[in-house]
Amino acid sequence: MDFSKLYRPSALNSYQFIALTGLIMSVAAHLILHYFVHRMPEGFNWLYLCWAGLYIVGSLLNLFGKPDEGHHHHH
């Protein structure tokens, strides 16, 4: 099992990439809302759970999915 698929940027799949991008953007929004707007929308922290869930699903697909899943190559 190649655990580098969990952290190496070139080995991430779409779900993992979207989750990490969403996490970074949510942290940035959180900091802006906290330090400049001084208000936090109710339920904002649930975003982090959603991004974590998406990353976990993507990681499971990346680790245990078939490498050529969805591709039909004829040699």
TrEMBL record:
Keywords: Membrane, Transmembrane, Transmembrane helix. The chain crosses the membrane at residues 12-37, 43-64. This is Uncharacterized protein.
